[in-house]
Every structure is written in C-alpha cells, then in structure tokens.
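Box 3.1. Reading complex inputs
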Amino acid sequence: MTIDMNNASAVTLRVNGTDYPMLLETERNLLGAIRDEVGLTGTKEGCDDCECGACMVLVDGQPVNSCSYLAVQAQGREITTIEGLADGQQLSELQAAILEAGGVQCGFCTPGMLMSATALLDRNPSPTREEIKVGLGGNLCRCTGYGRILDAVERAVTIR
Amino acid sequence: MTPPVSTPVLSEPIDPAALPRFDRADGPDKVTGSGRYTADLTLTGMLHAAFVYAEHSHARLLSVDTSVARSMPGVMSVLTADDVPDVRYTHGTADRRLFAKDAVRYDGDVVAAVAATTLEKARAAADAVVVEYEPLPTVTDLEAALADGSPLVHPEWQSYDAADGVERSGNVASFSSIAKGDAHAAMADAEHVVSGRYVADASHATPIEPRGVVAQWEGGKVTIWSSTQVPFAARAGVCQTLELPTNKVRVIVPHLGGGFGGKCGFHYEAHVAALAQAAGRPVRLVFTRREEFLAPDRRREGMIVDLTTGLRSDGTIVARTAKVLLDGGAYMADGEFFPQMAAMHVAGPYKMDHCHIEASLVYTNRQPSGSVRAPTAPQGCWAVETHTDELAAALDMDPVAFRKLNAVDEGDEGCVGQIYNKIGLQDCIDAAVAAVTPEGDLGEHESIGVAIGWWPSFPGASGAIVRLDDDGQGQIVTGAQENGTGSVMTLRQLAADELGLAPQDFQIVYQDTAAAPFDGGSSGSQTLINNGRAVVAAAGRVADQLKELAAAELEASVDDIVLADGAAHVAGTPTKSVTIAELAAAAGGGALLVASGSEDPPEYPELDTEGGRIACIGDQGVAGWAGPQFSCHAVHVRVDPDTGVVRVLNIGAAHDSGTIINPLAALGQIEGGIMMGIGQALTEITHYDEAGNQLNAGLLEYKLQTAADTPNVKVVFIEPGADGVGPRGAKGLAEAPNVATAAAINNAITKVIGTPVRSLPMTAERVWAASMGVDEGSQP
C-alpha cells in the first residue's frame, strides 16, 4: 500500500500487546491498518458495511467492526485481534470449544465470531442461550446455521 | 461398489453433545487467524485489479476508449475484448466472452479490466475508461420473453456452439420436459383437479468471503490462487479462454470462505491471469460485497411454476401437468440442466402414472443464474409442496397422511419411471413430524407445516494419492476441494480406517490442480462419495503393501495380517505384530508406500423409455437419479397477524442421505442448509429495476438470517442401508437440507392465516397481504 504523504499522520497502534508505529492516511479504516500495515490477516473483510461482523476486533475490550472504525481513533487503545486470543500454542476456551462443538466450517466468519463471543463472556460470564444469540447477532455465518456456534459458547461457559 | 446392507432403524433426533469429535485438520488454522484465504495473499510486486462493468443491462457496445486510463500513474495494464483471444465459453452453450465485445447483456458484464500499483489507482483508472453504448430494449419478463417479436438477449444464438441435448430457441436457453402416460386425458377423468401458480424471486449464495483471485506468471506458466469451489473447472476455463494447455495452468485454492455454489464454475481467473501477463507482474483481484452480489454468473434463479394436479377421491394422485419458467439471466453459465431438474422437483417424489411437465430456462437481461446449493430445488419444492397441502385440503385430508399415501417407497415408480430401491422417505416423514410435535398445545398464531423433498447424488470421476512417509505418517494428496463442509477433512477418517492408523496421522494436500488428480470440486455434494472412493482405493493399495511387508517380517500369510491401532498384527496371534512406523521406515529405503486411487464411478440407473409409455424424460442427464436422497422438514412457526412477521421456532428435519460417515459434520450441513432455507423462505429477496439492474446489492438490503433468528433444530438421519453410491453406502448430503424448508414454512403459515403465500420469499409484507386476501406479486 502506497501512502499519500500529504494526508498521512504518524500513528502507533497497539495490537495484541505490541506497539506498531506507522504512517496512515486519516481516512484509513482500522481493518486496513491491521491487515496491510500490521500484517495480521486473521481479521477478515466481508462487506465493508458493518453488516457481516467478519472484521470484528476488540478495542479496549469492546467489539467493533474494524471496517467502519478509523485507524487513527484506535491510537492509545488496546486492540485485540483473533491472533491475540491464544496464549502461545494454548487455545482460548472459546477457540477450543468452537472446534469441539463443530462450530467451524469455512472459517471465514470464525475470527469475528470468536471476538464477539470473547467480548460477550467478558461482560457476561454465564449468558443464557438467548443472550448468546443476541451477543452474536452482529456476526453473519452462512455455513453452520449458528447452532454449533451457540453450543460452543455454552460449552466454553461450562468449562470456565 | 456394494453398499453394506443393514436393517433400517428409525433413529431418534441427534444429540450433538454425544457425537464423536470431528478433528478438522484445518481447525487450528481457522480459529487462530493463521489460515490464509485468497485475499490474505500478497506477492512481491503485486498489482491490484479493478473491473469496468456495463452501465446498461442491454446495449450495443460502440466503443471502449482506454487511452486516458492507460496513461494514469501506476496503471500497468488495461484489457478489453481486443486484448484477449476471441473465444466464447461455457460448456452448455458458448454464449459468453471474458470481456463484452459487441453488446452488454446485464449490469455485471465486464467491459474492461485494469491492474495498477494500488487498488485506489486501479479503481480510478477503471472509472476513466470511456465506453459508448447504444441502449437496446431489455428482456426482463419471462412470459413476454417467449412471445413472438420479443427482443432477443442473444440475437445470434443459432451461431453458438452448444452441448448435445441442449434444446434452444430464441430466448429459451434450454428446454426440457417429462411426458409420461397421457396426462391430459387422465386429468379429464380425475375426480378433483387443483391448480395453482407459484412465483419465486431470485436469491443469492452469499458466501461471507467475497471472491478473490491472484495470478502470477513464471515463464510460460501461470499459477492462479482462486477462491473457487471447482479448481479443475476454473483451470479448464482459463485454458479455453486464454488458449493454454492444462499443464501450463496451475490453480491453487487457499482456504475457501464458503461457496454454496456461488463459487462454482469459471469466473475471473482468466481476467486476472491476462492482466498479470500483460503487466509482467502478479495481480490480485478482491471483490467488494457489491460486486459479489452483481457480477458472478451464479444467482439462484427466479421461477414461475403453474401446476395442475388431478386426484381420485381416495386421495391418490392421478395426473400432474406443469409449466415452469426459469429466469436464466443473460448467459447460460451451468444452467443447461436446470429445466430438467426443475421439472423433477415440481413432479416431486410422488407416485403418478401420468404427468406432463415442460420447463424452460429463459434468457433475460439480468445477472446470469447458475448452480446455487441444490439449484431449482428449494423454489420447485416450495411450489409443489405448497400445492400438495392445497391438494390435501381439497380432499379434506390430513396433509401428512396425503404425503404418506402418495410418496414413493421401495419398489414404487416415480415420475420418470425410476423404480426405487430401499429408501427412507416414509420414515423421514414420521421422524420429522415426531421431532417437532409438542407435548402440549401450540401457542396462539402458531402452527406446524410439513414438506418433503428429494435430491440426487452425482457419481463422477475423481482421484487421489495416498502415501506413508518413513516415520509412518501419512499424506493424502487429492484434487478435492474443501469449501467448509468438512468433506475433504473426513477423507482422513477413511484413509485411517483402511490403514489401521488415526485420522491425526494424516495431513491433506488438497485443492491444487498441479499436485493431484482431477476431482469435480465442492459441487453437487460429490466430494465424499467420489473422492472418498478414490481415497479408500488408494489407501487400500498402501494397506496391501504394508501387509506384504508385515507378512515377511512376521513370517505369516498376507491374508492373516490385520492393520489396526498403528500396527500390523497376525490374526489370532496377538503377540506377533510390528508397528506401521517400523514398516514405513523399512519401506523408506526401497519400494515406497505410495498408491493412487480413482476407480470407475457407480453408474446412473437406466430408465426404460421404450414402448412410448414414458415418451420423454428430458435430455440433460439428470432424470435417473443415482443414490437418490429424501428428506422431510416439519416446521413450527409463529405468525404475527398485525405485521406478517414469521418467526421459525422449531424444526424437525429427517434425511435419508445414505450412510452417515461423519455425524457431526453431517449435522452441520443439515443445520446450515435449514438456516439458508429459512432465509430464502422469509427475507432473501433480490430487487430489480425495470431494465434488470439489481437494486439491493448489499447485506443491509439483502437480509441473511442471524444468530438471533436461530430456531431449535432436531435432526434425524434415516439410514436405509441400500442404494448408496459412496463409501459404506453414503449418498451426497450437503444440498439436500436446502430443499424442503421454505415449503414447510409456507404450509405452516397457511394454517395460521388461512391461505398460502404464492410468492417466495414470504416477506412480512407478502404474508400480511396474503392474510388480507391480496397477492403482492413477484418479479420473475
């Protein structure tokens, strides 16, 4: 990506605990900065319209659609992406649970889904199934019909 | 292949928590973000592609001026029809070029393509291409398109090459009919006759990953990374349009973010390859969501179905006539078999001695239709199963009893004269209804609707290579394509069982046309039945090699060697064994443990068309169904009478898809297919303007179901133990769950509001209007 220097600012994004200094145009979205400047491609672009949730990341623990969030706004905040969920080779409870429950098919929605689920369990450690449905309501999945994903979140809750 | 014969068991609904774990080889990649999809790939020096699309849905192309675009900074190649071989493609009818040449025929026709150093520069250059058009009259009404004097979408259709058996005429891209007995005479004698018109709008596959293509040339060879479901078909398209031999084109599919048919066929691989060749640099194309809606020639076809059925007072079907019009859009894509498939679906899995069904795929100036998960089936099933409840109502019969009376069972003859082996349809009906029937009463404005469906399996060519390396760990090298269903991942289980190893002992090298033999790709629910056959055969040959080595090592007869638990054992002498790792280490210094498998696919059933009783069964090869699958969905809904909003609460889904090899993955297919079916039933509608331009090409305006909409789903697998066409008696699976849901929902709605909804999808507005006695109408 070539930077338009007339319209660029020096920005430092803190992603998964590491600082990444970079030059960014003010209109660049957080998704593009994470994928193209930081170089982490686990966060996906499905619509660029806040409709599919594939680009969901956590900003100071809050789930945001990074396609519609300005990168410069994230300066000074703690950004967590799918690459930040595991502890080394140790999968998080949700990552393990979604595999065990059969909640992964094509995998394209999976990163965003896991970020939303992580945020949900952080604010509500024992959600009901209806609360899980609402908590994942901003993440589209075309493969699974959601049932195995909802089961996975319930499974992660019981493991905790 | 001899399928195992077992006693049919009416299973209970599956308890997902009790199923054996399915350890996906691609699972860790997909939950950690390390898995690479096409849009995640970056090559040194890579350029970005942008397309110039038609500004009219039908116009003569007068001139394309690329001079300004070519001169813009960062622009490295600009292509039009003049820059690539003048080749028309698509196997049914060769009616399309890579770039529109003399005319554009829909709003997603590609006129030119640009590659530049940034995406922004590529898009700016695409905007700077100046195209002169002369607008032509558009064709958007299916019935008007067939009238004398209608404008033609392809005035030169007679000059196109077409495959054998594709019956064409004017705006009819493909025609098929089923003619059995004397339907008109039988109808005249029927005691009751019921007619109805059912109209379905177009919908979309809508994978969450928009497609991407990356191409890089080295010398005269090109490597293309593509988000395709069918790498070998994509390769064939590149070879045909760019006039290259197969071994100069390598198609690799990184992880694929869903397809549902939308990524079948040959799409933009050749455009990107041609851009990369012209620029002398690698090029990447990634679609926006809007492009994903507008451009691909894979839309679920709109459909008009006129059905008439004659009945005896005892409830049996005497005769059926039907006329089906399918909106084929501007180009054939893979739609040549759609008329015959639609005819099968509006006939339905019923016994009938007389039927006459005519179906036409009609060219229009809209996005081309192509295979989307069970093409023609959900709409055709919705029409015929809505009609079936109307038949039962005409006789004051219970609709479930009516279906049990008329549905095919073992030994019965269906609409095209096929006589079925042991099948599970009757059991499916019982199991689905039982799974959804509540203990108490239904709530206010609630009801349960039932529908049955069917879908074939598709035996075909496929190959694989299995090898064990010198540490006893295995590789499965296969051309098969994993689109998420888990069918390729399940190949590990088949190989492991043959070799006495664990699935985790295998890695899979897949979806690379240069590495592996041909496979048909993730289309037609064919992976496990066909590539499974190949893997079992290849692994069986490696097993034979291992047994010979073990027999020599253990001084036993080859016939006494059993492979299990990672070792070769001598039957009856448990102390005599050698590990497979030891045998593999020894083989590593000599004849290697490697074998290929393919084997002839099972044959399609021959249908008896002699003697004139069955005069016509269509001519597109999908009348006699190998491994026919059957299903019944029973759906419990609540309808808000004030708004027409339908809420799906519970679904019982019973499926005969033969032997289930991987239950957790199979469950995921049923649940996912049902949810897609609910979307198609209630919210997924495509709007067009009068000229055929798509109006709602985005996820805000085209509504998929969300997690919040998830009903309770109970799944039952009926395994009749015969008639399978894959390993262990498996049939296809992944399309079958996307057949009966919308129909069952309409039959439930009908019981609440007193009338069926005659337009699909059954949006809140249409449900409310139907309840008020108004037909809101549809667009096809």
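In summary: Chain A touches chain B through 56 residues (CB under 8 Å).
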